[in-house]
Write a structure and sequence with these properties.
Domain CHAT: 691-948
Organism: Suillus placidus
Number of helices: 40
Protein name: CHAT domain-containing protein
Radius of gyration: 35 Å
Low-confidence stretches: 125-130, 263-267
Strand order of the largest sheet: 7-6-8-12-13-14
InterPro entries: CHAT_dom, TPR-like_helical_dom_sf
Strand content: 5-15%
Structural class: alpha/beta
CATH topology of the domain at 759-964: Rossmann fold
Mean pLDDT: 86
CATH architecture of the domain at 759-964: 3-Layer(aba) Sandwich
Helix content: 55-70%
Oligomer: single chain
Pfam families: CHAT
Length: 965
């Protein structure tokens, strides 16, 4: 400011001060005098003449007080005060001034043309330098002032979305990222084809979607991001000013997809990743040595080469990678916001070279660089995760070379810090906990059990963020390499002599998707008697959460985002209610993974035998009614043996249909003899010896992994007694066998029965559902179905008023209604297990399939018993056997306490013999005053398979299994 200007401003201030002095408090021109003086002083402040801004604002407030609403100069006073507050906000970064300025502008909105103060408000927002909560809130308030058609709205939306994404990178709040994506979708919609800013709007939206993919692992986000990046690149042809940005961004998205698609063959992986690297190299050629973006492209190219080196072992990549990282780090000086990433990346590359060359200077430098990156970041910054992981890599690599236990301890400590770093996304942390468990097992470190437990907790939390059953399944499938962790965790606990913890870990890791769904149906009887208000709140929130769940994919991505956000809000409210319940006396473990004492309730009516198939060891844990669990080791059974046994059973069953009964028996009997000798006989020895279990007692089998595909209940030596007096007893001669998917499932079924018994007695009702002629492409005609239905209906006691549903009436909707309205159900039709998407496993009806998902969505607390006379109703998905996702489990989840299911194909021509013998046994004592009791089903099935021994081939006798109470 020139001396002449300063002199003029001082003269002006003195003049208006003199005018004010001549206007007493009640003078009609006093407000104008106050305003003029304050405006002169404000002008000096804006032009950097050091006037007192606080006293200036005080003058404006006094003027406004003298001009109440309705005064002709009211709007002038509002605006001048807002302007002064805005100036102080910009100068001193005081958010409270910004808020008040915005509120004053809101008051002005209906009173005067908006352009004047909206431009002023944009100036306030443009002055924001720090992405803080307050500043973001201020920008939200500014955005509310721009209507949808206002010319200033796109820029305000874009500015807020950018700051929200920046805030997300600093604090890891998914809410910020969701809002950023929503706003950036609006910008894209405003920039239609041909708009000069469309390429930028596409790039920005895609970048936010890619960030969300990394944080939450949703494949839809990645696919959409790639599509948007590709469109943006097409709008930036060779010669375009920002082509390098699109090349960089598309390369990053394709690299993410490369990392996700580990299953493709090596040739295609090489081709796809060479394409990624070529994008980065092209981008680099477009950037001069002094270009401000060059450091980012150098870093991205180096990351890509590192990935190719680690995955495809292209040895020449490593040295180039290190040189690129060093150059990128040189360009990122100490005040650069991305410097910490270059430090970590260079450290990781040096660690990779140390593994190859074992040069100590490389690993020592790697550790120093990673430690420097941690010092550069606040304690809650999401990127600290990557620093922990690189440190872990360095310490573990050095331990493997030098065998210093201190390095192993430091590696484990960084595994812990990374997997428990709350602001980083769950997918990264889940992968870390898996790698921690693998490393701890490999080096026999005591933290292995903690690593397993951490993995299960993180995976559970990750699946809980998904709003549909199918999306949870897709999320779980992402970690398919970790499907063995439940059995590996149990094996680890067994090897450490902690059988109780083995049972707890097994239960925590298996059937997680059933566990998540069941939480919304948790009985609240005890809580209602202790704290009815809290019980009501939890019940209502569970209902809202259940209603917010969807089972289909929404093709409208914006609507899908909104639904996911709403679901997450419901989930947060639900979690808060759970936390409140845990504060109530006696409810500290509400919905926490059950303890061994809790799980032991499953053995109340007979021991539960958990069969564990791990690469580390194979054996069984017997959970008795009381006391400590018992371990049974299988000395001659390993996981490869079990896989061969499973495959041999599948082959024998497949060939059985075309073989003579005696040949079929020979093959199957040989396999069942192995099951008896190597698996079930050692268990029986403990049951008879240590537990003194009486013959014909109930036992429950809980198979895992490869055991789930083996007919354990049919184990039989097929040998004669030593005295030739008859055949040796088989398992089903000794005990009444049932199955349970998990111990919790059996406990829930029993609790539901107890609760039902305490209520007013509901007379049993029965329906036989059959479909002999399913709809198109659902299977061939089943000629024996109708006669089976008639047989069953006649066998049922007349007091139940048995009904049947068949032919044109046996539709999807009709079958669902029948399931809901009856306590006992017999279902005869085609059954299909979908191995790619097990929730699509179904019963074939006349018009459409009755899917497992349809069944799971029902809640039928009065249901009791279901006989599934259909194929493949009790066998789960081969890829994730420990999720136990099959039709029989779905019926049990929906409310049926006792279910008969099948392990493979059922021959409808001979099944009627088993069905007849079963129901005759079930109802044999009704005429003597007995009652229909679904708990008799296991004994009735045991009786039926013995009764039809001479009428039904072996494969069809052992196909049926009992699940539940």
């Amino acid at each position: 400011m020139t001396s002449k200007t300063v002199s003029y401003l001082n003269d002006t201030v003195e003049h208006f001060q003199s005018v004010l002095d001549q206007c007493p408090v009640d003078h009609p021109d006093r407000a104008a005098a106050l305003t003029n003086l304050a405006s002169a002083r404000l002008r000096g402040h804006i032009q950097k003449d050091l006037q007192d801004i606080d006293s200036t604002i005080s003058l404006f407030r006094k003027a406004l007080a003298l001009r109440p609403q309705g005064h002709p100069d009211y709007t002038i006073s509002l605006f001048t005060l807002a302007q002064a507050l805005g100036v102080r906000y910009l100068k001193e970064d005081t958010a409270v001034d910004g808020y008040e300025a915005v509120q004053l502008c809101r008051t002005l909105l209906p009173l005067c043309p908006e352009g004047t103060f909206l431009r002023f408000l944009a100036a306030i927002a443009n002055g924001v330098h720090n992405v803080t909560d307050d500043n973001i809130q201020l920008q939200r308030m500014e955005l509310e002032l721009y209507s949808l058609g206002h010319t200033g709205r796109p820029r305000a939306v874009d500015r807020l979305s950018l700051d929200l994404r920046t805030h997300f990178t600093q604090w890891g709040s998914i809410d910020d990222l969701d809002e950023s994506i929503r706003l950036r979708r609006e910008v894209v919609s405003l920039c239609s084809e041909g708009h000069p800013a469309r390429d930028t709007s596409l790039d920005n939206l895609a970048s936010s979607l890619l960030s969300r993919f990394h944080h939450q692992g949703k494949t839809d986000d990645l696919n959409e991001a790639i599509s948007l990046f590709e469109e943006a690149l097409s709008l930036r042809p060779v010669g375009h000013e920002y082509r390098y940005v699109s090349l960089d961004n598309l390369g990053g998205a394709l690299r993410a997809r490369f990392n996700q698609c580990a299953g493709i063959d090596d040739i295609n992986r090489v081709i796809s990743f060479d394409h990624v690297i070529s994008l980065y190299r092209e981008a680099l050629t477009l950037l001069a040595s002094e270009h401000p973006h060059r450091d980012t492209t150098l870093n991205n190219l180096a990351v890509a080469l590192t990935t190719r080196y680690n995955d495809l072992h292209v040895s020449e990549d490593l040295d180039e990678t290190i040189n690129l990282f060093r150059e990128s780090l040189r360009l990122r000086q100490h005040d650069h916001p991305e410097r910490h990433r270059s430090l970590v990346n260079l450290g990781s590359a040096l660690c990779s070279r140390f593994i190859q060359t074992q040069m100590n200077e490389d690993v020592d430098e790697a550790i120093r660089l990673c430690q420097d990156s941690l010092e550069a970041l606040p304690s809650l910054h999401p990127d600290r995760y990557f620093s922990y992981m690189s440190l872990q890599q360095a310490y573990l690599s050095r331990y493997r070379v030098q065998h210093n236990l201190v390095d192993l301890s430091l590696a484990v400590e960084n595994f812990k810090l990374a997997s428990k770093h709350a602001t980083q996304g769950l997918p990264y942390r889940i992968i870390t906990s898996y790698n921690w468990a693998v490393a701890a097992e490999q080096h026999d470190h005591e933290s292995a059990l903690e690593a397993y437990s951490t993995f299960f907790e993180l995976l559970d939390a990750h699946l809980a963020t998904r709003s549909s059953t199918t999306s949870r399944r897709e999320a779980a499938a992402t970690f398919r390499y970790a499907i063995s962790l439940p059995v590996d965790a149990a094996s680890c606990a067994i090897r450490r002599g902690n059988l109780r913890y083995a049972v707890e870990l097994m239960e925590q890791g298996r059937g997680q998707q059933w566990s998540l769904a069941s939480r919304l149906r948790t009985p609240l009887d005890d809580l209602e008697s202790t704290n009815p208000k809290l019980a009501c709140t939890f019940s209502e929130l569970s209902k809202h959460l259940s209603e917010a769940q969807g089972s289909t994919v929404n093709t409208d991505r914006a609507a899908a985002d909104q639904a996911e956000t709403q679901y997450r809000k419901h989930m947060e409210e639900w979690k808060a209610a759970v936390a409140d319940i845990r504060k109530v006396d006696g409810f500290s473990r509400f919905l926490l993974p059950p303890s061994y004492t809790d799980l032991q309730a499953a053995a109340r009516h007979g021991p539960v035998i958990i069969l564990i198939a791990s690469k580390y060891s194979c054996g069984a844990i017997i959970v008795p009614k009381s006391g400590e669990p018992h371990h049974v080791y299988f000395p001659r059974i390993t996981l490869p043996h079990l896989k061969r046994l499973k495959d041999n059973f599948a082959k024998a069953i497949k060939q059985a249909a075309g073989m003579r009964p005696q040949d079929q028996r020979k093959d199957l009997q040989g396999l069942l003899r192995i099951v008896w000798d190597e698996i079930m006989l050692p268990i029986v020895n403990v049951l008879e010896g240590d537990l003194k279990l009486r013959h014909r007692s109930r036992i429950w089998l809980c198979p895992t992994a490869e055991f789930t595909s083996i007919p354990l209940h049919a184990a039989n030596s097929s040998r004669m007694n030593a005295d030739r007096s008859g055949p040796e007893p088989c398992l089903e001669d000794l005990y009444i066998c049932s199955y349970t998917p998990t111990l919790s499932a059996l406990i829930r079924a029993r609790q539901s029965m107890k609760k039902q018994a305490m209520k007013k007695h509901v007379p049993p009702s029965f329906v036989a559902i059959g479909q002999s002629k399913p709809g198109a492409r659902q299977g061939k005609e089943l000629v024996a179905v109708n006669s089976e239905l008639e047989l069953v209906r006649k066998l049922f006691p007349a007091t139940t008023s048995p009904t049947s549903l068949s032919g044109e009436d046996a539709t999807r909707a009709g079958a669902l209604e029948a399931l809901q309205q009856n306590t006992w159900v017999h279902l005869a039709c085609h059954g299909k297990q979908d191995h790619k998407q097990p929730y699509n496993s179904h019963f074939a009806m006349r018009d459409a399939s009755l899917t497992l998902l349809d069944i799971m969505e029902q809640d039928i607390p009065h249901a009791e018993f279901a006989f599934l006379s259909a194929c493949h109703t009790a066998v789960g998905d081969e890829k994730t056997p420990d999720e136990v996702i099959h039709l029989a489990a779905g019926l049990q989840f929906s409310g049926f306490k006792s279910v008969i299911g099948t392990l493979w194909v059922v021959d409808d021509a001979v099944v009627k013999h088993v069905v007849k013998a079963f129901y005759e046994k079930m109802f044999e004592d009704l005429e003597d005053g007995g009652v229909m009791d679904c708990k008799k089903a296991a004994r009735a099935l045991n009786h039926a398979t013995h009764t039809v021994k001479n009428e039904v081939p072996l494969d069809q006798r052992i196909v049926f299994v009992h699940i539940g109470v």
